[in-house]
Amino acid sequence: MRKTLIGKRELYFLAALAVLVLLVCTIAYAVTREEGNSVVVTVDGQVYDTYALDKNQTVTVETKYGTNTFVIQDGKVEMEDADCRDGICTDHAAISHKNETIVCLPHKMVISVDVQEEEGQTTEAAFDAIVQ
User: Fold this and answer.
1) Are the CB atoms for 66 and 106 separated by under 8 Å?
2) DSSP class of residue 93?
3) For a FRET experiment, which of 56, 109, 126, 129 has its CA 20 to 30 Å from that of 86?
4) pTM exceeds cut of 0.85
């Protein structure tokens, strides 16, 4: 007679638990997702420029590594053209949420969406101590 380490009941329980954990994580991710309001472009680890996500524009970035063109339209940014050899970055979907990125490795370029506070706007997160 063969002894099993785990029975059918335990297996069903573990599968249901895994599905439940996955569902909770998915819901938490969807609820905490924050729309961005700016696009930060870095080249070789240095900030190249920052652009408003609410202003439709086409931007061409020329560096010693190559040329990339991206489009900001309707609150989303998308890589339109790149003269790199693989062009993987141009296949990436448009991004609009905080911390989403488009990366062009051959050109050492990263386009990321961020949330920058507008002038005059303050939040409690900006303060790290209260003095009396």
Assistant:
1) yes
2) P
3) 56
4) no
